[in-house]
Amino acid sequence: MKAASFEYVRAGSVAAACELLRQDGDAIKLIAGGQSLVPMMAMRLARPSRLVDINEIAALKFVALEPDIVRIGACTRQCVLERDNALATRVPLLRQALAWVGHVQTRNRGTLGGSLAHADPAAELPLAAQVLGARMMLRSTAGVRCVPASDFFAGPLATAIEAQECLEEIHWPVWPEHRTGSSFIEVSRRHGDFAIVAAAAQIAVDGEGRCIRVSFGLGGGGQTPLAFPGLATHLLGTRFDAAVVQSVAQDAALELDPGNDLHASAGYRKRLAAVLAARALRAAFDQAKGNP
Amino acid sequence: MSETLYPIAVVVNGVERTAQVPARLTLVDWLRDELRVTGTHVGCEHGICGACSIMLDDEPIRSCLMYAVQADGHRVTTVEGLAQPDGSLSDLQDSFCQLHGLQCGYCTPGMLIAAQGLLDTTPHPTEEQIREAIGGNLCRCTGYQQIVEAVKHAAGRLSERPLSPRGRGTG
After folding, report:
1. Residue B65's domain is classified under what CATH number?
2. Partner-chain residue, chosen from B61, B73, B135, that has the shortest CB–CB distance to A191
3. Which residues of B touch A39 (CB under 8 A)?
């Protein structure tokens, strides 16, 4: 046995999990799919004294399509989301991101909420949440609060979730524009690894093929996944001429503060970020233009 | 200090097994060390290599990334459960033998589970789908080519005999 010893509790409901967290939140770690937490416990980077298992809570597993948003239960498995065609129609970036997440075996167990709560700065789902401005619903015995992605990711493996809170639902905005396109691309050492750099974009165009809405972001280049709402405004009204896209992508890469590690140098990451951001923007734009 | 034990009941290859386990015992260690169902291999023990792949409720997962206590009330199929009821090899297993889909054999139980998971949902996979399905399983001997060929071969055999019992002892 590699993990340090811990006490195990299987929570039967969100209320039960929240009550446990209220009593002893600092000592508890919630476990969903466990695809990151169990390795961290095996290496003793994490040593929770109590593990509260939320895998059996049916109320945390759902995809609800509403007019302006899609609500997804935090413990919904990644494999369920990647197979959901109605979801892919409404939030296409999510399926595009999931195609890069781990492997069949990890997606069968890994959950949406688990990936977001783990908040690896190079993970795909946090980047998708950041780019689309997803909102996290955090429940405690005191009630629910809603945290937008821009305030949720606090640093590497750190989020706004308080010790007494459980991530319950994630709300994904649905873009109403008909001519919308999106793209998610990354470079990693092996397919299924966390990204060295990942880029994601979603764009809407008008009848004349001019950009009327745009959001894009980069992962793997800093402490958290980043979106660039300020830079994105330079693309509004344009037809995505190469020079404009290049310059916006370049400026985004300059905002990154990547580290040097075994996999890539900081310089390479920045260069990659500029290239991938431009490609993702271009691909999303072309897809948007192709839509009737 | 004695560690708390938790009662579990898990259907393993069609047979209900009960035990008292410490919370930190991984599912793969329980299967191998306690039940002596040793077909499943342990490689990296932190979710990289895929050697410990098993099916949980018919879907491939990594059994080093789950604690045995979490499997309480669920069904597990290991590589032992892929064989025919009489113990002879399934079409998939036999295809691995025929097409040299293994050399040292260490990754093979995980490869077979991953491939079976694919064939269960995608009876006529493309080569790309096969490569995607085994993408989470490392093999340091074969270079993967023969494994891909073996899965293709198995898919062909299964489509010729669609009603052939696969002998999955999932109960």
Report:
1. 3.10.20.30
2. B135
3. 46-47, 65
